[in-house]
Design a protein that fits this description.
Helices cover about 45% and strands about 15% of the residues. By secondary structure, the chain is of the alpha/beta class. It has one domain: NAD(P)-binding Rossmann-like Domain (Rossmann fold, 3-Layer(aba) Sandwich), CATH 3.40.50.720. It is globular, with a radius of gyration of 17 Å. The structure holds nicotinamide-adenine-dinucleotide.
């Protein structure tokens, strides 16, 4: 258990599934009081209940991260339950696979609203507590596709490249307040999102095929991202900020 994480209030968005779920479990295991925030209220409640059954402290919170009012409402519930926010891991996101010429403005706007504007909402609504405390840890989840580019994903890649830029700029602004801000761009993690894309034939091969092409010869696990998050939110990571912290089995170097 990390003493710095003990009893700290951590909001994990997108925490009902995949990477966010693994992060929520890990931070709870490290002693944080975790808010499992997700669009899917039932799944968030199930995840929080499982964390509690495993001996952790967790509560569920429903919000659409693209809707500032709903984020503010959810955060208010978390504060009333656990107190001021100290840690934010923002994993909520949606995929986008479309040929560039077919992307409607509506589709473009939705991907950007969830992935980029959602990051803005969730960070902005959290920082006041952290500034007040003179301590905070923010980890955004971007994507290795924003480092390498990816065909048929221009809306998604643009939104995630925006997350990297937001993270770097925010780190510089919040450094003097004792708050670190880093981003993890995951590369090929075996989650429900990845399996949905595989089922729809959008990956250009199976998960196993891609794993065989990955330098470490496996797909990433949500727990791989959770382990990196556990470090980035720890006390000893206080000199790590503004970084793009790749976790990708060597697929991007
Ligand atoms: N899986 C990968 O290989 C991979 C690679 C790069 C980046 N990522 C990013 O990692 C993050 C997590 O992905 P995952 O693979 O765990 O996906 P996932 O689909 O398994 O989980 C995403 C979660 O976010 C929630 N969510 C979606 N829209 C939301 C909204 N508007 N408000 C609140 N919650 C919302 C979903 O309900 C779901 O529980 C995403 O931002 C994704 O873009 C994943």
């Amino acid at each position: 258990m990390d003493p710095a994480t003990q009893h700290k209030v951590a909001v994990v968005t997108g925490a009902a599934s995949g990477i966010g779920l693994a992060v929520a479990r890990r931070l709870a295991r490290d002693g944080a009081h975790v808010a499992v925030l997700d669009l899917n209220a039932d799944a968030a409640e199930t995840a929080a209940a499982k964390i509690r059954a495993d001996g952790g402290t967790a509560t569920a919170a429903q919000a659409d991260v693209s809707d500032r009012e709903s984020v503010d409402r959810a955060y208010a519930e978390v504060r009333a339950r656990f107190g001021p926010l100290a840690i934010l891991v923002h994993s909520a996101g949606i995929e986008g696979f479309d040929r560039f010429s077919t992307i409607t403005t509506e589709r473009w706007n939705r991907v950007v609203a969830v992935n980029l504007t959602g990051t803005f909402h969730c960070c902005q609504a959290a920082v006041e507590d952290m500034i007040e405390a003179g301590w905070g840890r923010i980890v955004t989840i971007s994507s290795s596709s924003a480092q390498s580019g990816q065909p048929f994903m221009t809306h998604y890649v643009a939104s995630k490249a925006g997350v990297i830029g937001l993270t770097k700029a925010l780190a510089l602004e919040l450094g003097p307040s004792g708050i670190t801000v880093n981003t993890i761009p995951p590369g090929f993690i075996d989650t429900p999102m990845t399996r949905r894309s595989e089922e729809r034939g959008l990956l250009g091969g199976s998960v196993d095929h891609h794993a065989s092409l990955t330098p470490v010869r496996r797909a990433g696990l949500p727990e791989d991202i959770a382990a990196a998050c556990a470090f980035l939110v720890s006390e000893e990571a206080g000199y790590v900020t503004g970084q793009v912290f790749g976790v990708n089995g060597g697929r991007n170097t």
